[in-house]
Amino acid sequence: MNKILIIDDDETLSSIVVEYFSENNFQVVQAFNALEGIEQYKKENPDLVLLDYFMPGMTGVEGLRQLKNEDPNVLVIMMTGAGSEKIAVEAMKAGAEDYVSKPFSMDTLVSLVRMHIERHRERLEHIRRKEELERYNRYLAHNMEHVNEAIISTDADGKIEYMNKAAEQFWLYKKGDVIGLSIWDIFEKEKINLSPQKVKEALFYAGTFKEEFKFVRKDENILYGLLSASFIKDDPIKAIVAVVTDLTRIKEMENRLIKSERMASLGHLADGVAHQVRNALITLGGYANLLKKKMLPDDKNRLYLEPIVESVERLDEMVREIENYAYYTHKDLAEFNQIKLLPIINSAMKRAFKTRKCKNIAVSVDIEPKNIALVGDNAFLRELFFQLILNACEAMEGGGNLKITAKGRQNSAIIKISDTGGGIPKNDIPLIYDPFYTTQNRGAGVGLTIVLRILETHNGSIDIESAPGKGTTFTIALPTTRSSKE
Questions:
Q1: Please, how many CA atoms are within 13 Å of residue 363, restricted to the half-sphere of its CB?
Q2: Which end of the chain, N or C, is surrounded by fewer C-beta atoms within 10 Å?
């Protein structure tokens, strides 16, 4: 039931209006001056107020202004016995919804009141829905800014109109740098068979588009991502929303798993090959040395034996490295125990500095706390740090500074090994863990491959920071607690 408030000092007319509206299923509240009407409004909260213009003490317009102060959405129809355009304009400016002149038809007044109440409710409902939509949009905008997936919206031609924080982090661009640019500029150009038309056709006919791609970051690094695109429904398509899920880590793990399996297979193969090669080397070296001993000091043929003996020694060194690599592909040989980090590093350093590769190298060690303990195999981890220290020394041919630091973190130890060598070119960094990749004149190039295998055995990780002329830092993470799966 609709409720109205009548504010009129004419008690006779007010009673007639009350009676008529009551007969038409309205609940009616009366007041006989503006101040009383304002109090009744606050108490009863009616759907509409019929307010007389001429009243003693406070005019209807003054009362209307006070009602508007109390409730900006109050619905008021002004009534007067002296109709004039000036009064109507004054009332409407003060916020009246409508204006009627006395005498008026009661049927017309009832119809007018019903119409305005209905329209007012529709208007308030529209405002409520608009506010609800704005809240929802703010909620969506907040979520879009804080989800992990990179979100980009474009026009139909792929020009970027919006990107969220995850997209900024994914591509390293600021929002303002890419608005208006084409989304196709951030795909890898050489290996992509994609065009705006292909995406739009897929969206138009299937409604969605989903495919894995490589993306080019601002720093020119390549990232893997799953592109899921949809469009804002219209014909023709007017806007595209693209969500990119970062697959870089997943791809790295997949590639690492594939590489690990290949390395393990290669290790088994290398083990067998090294055994056969060693037998041949023993034969070659043995006979070469025997011939050398039997020859007179001035025998000219001794010149031919020197390169043979030297080559045999180099091959023998390489075979030992290959056998060493093959050994560390056997994860089942590792025995896990709690072991102190500092003695392991000291042992690895002592072994490395006995070689000619670590001459003229200044070293500093900073381990905090000094009693950091790892969970791992003592021999495996000594080999890991030996290979890293030896690799650093090789990078500083002629001398340099080697720095080893370690800090304990929750369930892990972070060890950094830094050198002041020539650094590694960006394109070579992905290759350094590959078996037999080396920049040295001697050796098999399996040192860092062994490091990677040992880390895999210990559920550890390795990262590298390097640039030509700026040296290299390897960052190792190793567990300090035993995993329940081990």
A1: 20
A2: N
Residue 380 has pLDDT above 80, yes or no: yes
pLDDT tens digit string along 134-183? Answer: 776 666 566 566 667 888 888 877 788 888 888 888 888 888 888 888 77
Side-chain-facing half-sphere of 404: CA atoms under 13 Å: 22
Q: Are residues 285 and 346 in the same domain?
A: no
Q: Are residues 307 and 381 in the same domain?
A: no
Q: Indicate whether 484 belongs to any domain.
A: no
- 154 and 184 belong to one structural domain: yes
Provide, rounded to the nearest whole percent, the portion of the chain with pLDDT above 90.
Answer: 25
Tally of domains within the chain? 4
Distance CA 281, CA 275 (A): 10
Mean pLDDT, rounded, for 241-269: 67
The two tokens of residue 106 are 């009661």
Mean pLDDT of the region 182-203: 63
Structure tokens at 193: 């068979």
Cα separation, 416 vs 464, in Å, equals 10
In a domain, 9, yes or no: yes
User: Do 404 and 289 share a structural domain?
Assistant: no
Q: Which domain holds residue 35?
A: 2-126
Q: Are residues 382 and 318 in the same domain?
A: no
CATH of the domain at 61: 3.40.50.2300
Q: Tell me the mean pLDDT in the region 275-291.
A: 75
